[in-house]
Amino acid sequence: MGLSSALNTAVFGITYNQRQLDVTANNIANADTVGYSKKTIAATAYFDGQGNVAGLTATELTRVIDEQIQADYFNSLADTNYAKQISNHTDRLDSIFGTIGDNSGLSSLVGNLSSALSTLMNDPGNYTAQQEVIAASEAFARELNGAYGRITDLRQEADDSLALQTQTVNNLLTSIEDIDTAIRDATQSNISTADMEDERDRLVEQLSGYLDIEVSDGTNNTLFIQTADGQQLYSDGQASTLSFTSTHLLQPGVSGQTVTATTPGGSTYDVIAASNSGAMVATAELRDEILIEAQKQLDTIAAEISLAFSNVNVESSAVTVGLDNGFDLDVSALQSGNTITLEYTDNVGAAQSVTLVAVSDPSLLPLDNSATADANDTVFGIDISSGLPATYITNITAALAGSGLQVSNNGSDELRVLGDVTGPTSVESLTANVTVSANSDQGLGLAIFVDQRAGTETFTDALESGGQRVGYASGISVNPALLADSSLLVDYQTTPTANTSNDPARPEFLHNALTSGAVFFDPSAGIGSTSSPFEGTVIDYINNTIAFQGNQAEDAKTYATAKETLTTNLAIRYEESFSVDLDTELAFMVQLENAYAANARVMQTIKELFDELLNIV
Description:
Strand content: 15-25%
Distance between the termini: 22 Å
Number of helices: 11
Number of strands: 22
Structural class: alpha+beta
Radius of gyration: 39 Å
Helix content: 40-55%
Largest sheet: 5 strands, mixed
């Protein structure tokens, strides 16, 4: 190697050492800067035809970062934020429902009502006992109203949060677009983009908490960002725009607006449907699924306790016509939502169960089997809009035409259903379950609770207008007639003779309806399933609902803790992959200083040699 080549090598070495010293000093200075990644300088040497160093560049900064750990960490942020959001709200939801031992919760309040009815049953004429039943009923109705209102507030809060999250994501995408443009321009101009990439990573990290995104490299050191199912969020330096319209009054059982993304090309898609996790997905799920389900549970409780008290069975009369046996049933008391249950054996000996559901809006027909909670019945909707029992029977006859039974009007506008010995078919039972429309002379049932969302209306569980039970918990109230006259809790008959004031029949009926009357409950509220619906008393259902909410909150908390632990561990590993180790950097700086000094000594030696050569000449 000649002196010139050695000199060039030493000069290039000093240049590289100086650049590396600057980078190392910058690493040390930014060791505590959040999001700053360790940088290294890449050197490229150029050689002449004789293998001597002819040039060296040391301008390209490289970030020290583990991209796989980074991707894992970003992905985990979506799951963690989703889980934390769900856990936070299910915990609040659990507190609304209370616990079984909570004195102000639904379980204790329905227990108080049961106890008050039991006391009244033993002393029907006691005015104080009657008032206790009314007070317990009012407390229970108020708790349903209040719980429903608090859940409605949670839904509204979620809707408002979705609006803020949409704006935040738009701001993040705009910021990513700006920094990505700067990175692209710098890349094309061969300017270091390392620090800008750190800033971009911090923006992507924030974005990952809202939606589970997939991030990949685009052209010129830019990014390509898409949703979990491949929809475009950011591409070719252009961000999609998210839009959301708040719903200022969320209706019971009705989902709110979704978040829509519009790509630079003008196409649109549902952001929530395109994602599986993240804070935005959790917020929408809370508003439209978890909280609506909780409202359904309250509506189911309100509906079933009302029906337990106010509905009575209309028994049929056995009848024989020739060789065929069956029953005659008075259907004149049917109201929308009331039912007729028919049990029969078909022509192959199989037991069949049919539920006829009364509707006043024929546009609802035909009804699906899911119109009742019973998984084993066949449902037919019956139009009662005419108000004429004879027409009801005509419609029932048409509905049962394929059963092999003999269905007709018995001549007194009563429904007659007979088996057919030649079929052969046989009728096992025929009953109607109807809601009392008066406070007396219609059996032992009493409408303790009524629907007061639009004036005072009897709750019959009508299916019209989306279903009377939807939102009923918000408007359930004690019957004003009962508030005015507590003796109605005992007095159920005025003709032909009035029952005595000490007659326990009605209090006993009401108590048994609450504590012993087992029914199927709507599985769409989350308790039980379509194939195996929950069956029990109203008290059983309330206790199961409270347990359901408690378990849901506990499961969500456990899941959130697990996800948060994973994310924390990944965050530590991620930070370790790019953070500056002061000891390592200081040691490296010493090495660089030594190398700098060595190159300087080489240059000094070469200078001295050149001086000697010049002196000789």
